[in-house]
Amino acid sequence: MHSTENMAARSLRAAILAGVMLASVLGMSSAAAQELRDIRPSDSPLVLKSRGSFFVGGEQVEKTAIELGSLGPDDRITINQMYVEYMVPEGAAKASVVMVHGATLSGKTYDTTPDGRMGWYEYFVRKSHPVYVVDQIGRARSGFDQSAFNNVRAGLTLPDQQPNLLRLADRFGSWTNFRIGPQPGKAFPETQFPVEAADKLSKQSVPDLLGASRAQNPNWKALSDLALHLNGAVLLTHSQSGPYPLESAIINAKGIRGIVMVEPGTCNAKAHTDDEIAILAKTPMFILFGDYLSSPTGLPGPSWEERFNDCKALKKRIDAAKGDMRLLATAEAGIRGNSHMMMMDRNNLQIADLILAWIDEKVDR
Length: 365
What we know:
- Strand 10 (256-262), helix 9 (274-280) and strand 11 (285-289) form a beta-alpha-beta unit.
- The protein has helices at 2-25, 65-68, 120-126, 147-153, 170-176, 198-202, 218-229, 244-251, 274-280, 304-320, 348-362; strands at 48-56, 59-63, 75-79, 82-89, 97-100, 131-135, 165-166, 208-209, 233-238, 256-262, 285-289, 325-329.
- By secondary structure, it is of the alpha/beta class.
- The chain is globular.
- The protein has a single domain (44-362), classed as Alpha/Beta hydrolase fold, catalytic domain (Rossmann fold, 3-Layer(aba) Sandwich).
- The protein has eleven helices and twelve strands.
- The strands form three sheets. Strands 1-4-6-5-9-10-11-12 form an eight-stranded mixed sheet, with helices on both faces. Strands 2-3 form a two-stranded antiparallel sheet. The protein has a two-stranded antiparallel ribbon with strand order 7-8.
């Protein structure tokens, strides 16, 4: 009888929560900002040796007054720089970890979760890893080159030559594509994502210069350079940035001690040459996917199951080259309900422990 009552209570809570979130996702309620009162501080102090920020790369270019926004004479600016913030724990440190966010997001991805819990940034530091969180080039604090837009506005460039500005929206770009639920406002029964805070995830979204984040991607070399600057680091990436470490390693793998790809948007299994696979096989890799992979994204393009299969194909090639790659879907480990945003899920620290255990085994041994 108690079991029946508990099931009924859970069903009622789920129904109420789904109704509340349906209203929020469909725009029927105002989204409150993530406020200080939402934050759940840790019971113990965070002790650091140092913290700060810096930039990787960048080049100075001359710009006209129109390209600058017509606020003065022609002048010079810096573009293609990567912003990095960091925390280094006090005491003996383990491998440095570089965390890279996905499409239309920023380094906020790894900081405090939408519902106010500790994110991977702080948690990895508490586990003795120096952590470096980046904003992709052309995004957030890394800035972008506004010239293409100002030239179009001034009639100097045709509108169809202007870069596309992508932003993943709430109902499909996030809810269904990130696999919070099968349709907007409806959560999966076992979802680990804090659905009551979905509106706060929306506030993290920033425009992405789609043209600048694909071919000839400057983030690839910046990450390779950063790993060298750190005298070795694990590159931990997510979604759009998932395959970046593969390209970074091909450029220069010397500083890359390990690669962790959390739900990469692609593994490019067929794109890499045999010589490139031989290079990649020299670096240990861990690729991690969440639950509900077969659920439709609601967007054009491959499903997450197809992306998982692409990574299976890459693993087959890496294995054949005698490399060391682990590919895991959390459901295979008996962990159910994880979304695409597993660094924000309710069990985000459990997922972090899987990654930390792999780093301890493959990198810090």
